[in-house]
Fold this protein.
Amino acid sequence: MRLNAIKSWIATLNARELLPESLRPASSDASFRRYFRIDDANRASFIVMDAPPPQEDVRPFVHVAKVLGDTGVSVPAILEQDVENGFLLLSDLGNTTYLQLLTPDTAHKLYMDAIEALVLMQAQSQPDVLPEYDRALLLREMMLFPDWYINKHLGLTLNEKQQATLNSIFDLLLANNLAQPQVYVHRDYHSRNLMVLSQGNPGILDFQDAVFGPITYDLASLLRDAYIQWDEELVLDWVIRYWERARRAGLPVNPDIDSFYRDFEFMGLQRHLKVLGIFARLYHRDGKDGYLKDLPLVMEYTRKVAYRYKELAPLVRLLDELENKTPAVGYTF
């Protein structure tokens, strides 16, 4: 049904000389959105986004594409749109994701390109352009962890003491997150949403949920990626390189690198808890089991950060209780 509607819409774009018979799947994501690739008479390729109402709304995508595009980063150009029916025709940023090309040999160059683009985007942030990443939204995201990971995935219910422990950890993370300087936040700035381009690298996709929020969020998404892991020494080096560039660009990062790294880790922990919940929800609610294999890495990130800080020790104990593990000896800062 939707496929026929897409083809009918394409047929109305006469000036584009698109070839309906060349329509083919390009990718799908964790939402209801689907993407198709299509060629024109000159063999140039384009992307058709199918975002079926009422589950999806293309207007945030259209708005954020302009906001980010105006900063100078590489995002798809919106060539045609049918907002009411949820169709967009986009320029094609290719089919090579960072995840496909990342190796120990390519990583430094690719990550430095992504960091340069991130600083460029953040340096032009303005309030009241994107929705605010406020306490309610940050907390709602973390609540996915008890609701979907603990209750649904592990099949457990927190007792009163455990719930109080989790609440105190949430309060600690929220206090840190909300105290950070606020900038444009992509919210999924990672290896599956960054495309390798010959010029203007990286191409940036899946930005429709962008907000105005904590400055370390996208850096944590990038360097503590749920789909690929790097040695701590490399991550620390890239964080420092980001921090140096951000300061040169006039961004209000914490002037103390140790404090900035702590902000990065606490922001990452908020995201890890959210992602554990999201991956569990994708499986249990949406029947998408492909994300289950990524849960162990996200939990590893969660535990490593919690081990490192004395104030997060209650979270380690809670995770041990939930997973029936004996406490491990950790180190703290």
In short: Residues 2-91 form a domain with the Phosphorylase Kinase; domain 1 fold (CATH 3.30.200.20). The longest strand covers residues 34-39. The radius of gyration is 21 Å. Strands lie at 24-28, 34-39, 45-50, 78-82, 87-91, 182-185, 194-195, 203-204, 211-214.
